[in-house]
Amino acid sequence: MKILAFAATNSRNSINRALLDHALSRFQKEVDVNADIEILDLNDFEMPIYSVDREQDTGIPTAAKTFFEKIGSADAVLVSFAEHNGFVTAAWKNIFDWMSRIDMKLWQNKPLITMAATPGPRAGANVLQTQAMLTPHFGGEIRGSVGIGQWGDAFDPETGSLTRDEDIRKLGDALAAFALEPA
Known about the structure:
alpha/beta; Rossmann fold; five-stranded parallel sheet; two-stranded antiparallel ribbon
């Protein structure tokens, strides 16, 4: 199974990248030891802010086409969304907007696991709910969704792993959903 994974943020010290790394480690240990995993860094996909005028003047940036192609070549996608003011980061929104100009079904019928890590207690509830609503419209199927709140209490940076039993179980259940056949 080929997994495309990314933290939907351009922060170099993102808690969502820490969650992503932990989830991928568990996926390879618990679900598919032979998984082919590609991790993308949004910083490698910077491009001008989307506008119709810019698209007409210069076309779709190569970075957007590359990201779109990487989704297409994967069997499944694992995303950890940072939440900025209740929504996705500007960095991810821009990539998303550009890719939607290639094809509105930018998830290309791939199964997804969505995650979010936040320092507050709501565990990325807004961003995860928004993604749950939007993803089917954009050609994706969310197989599992996990929000981890109060990150400072939920994650041990020395071991690189979650500490609360409930979070450990929720993430394990979500990751196992990739092994299921489509409904």
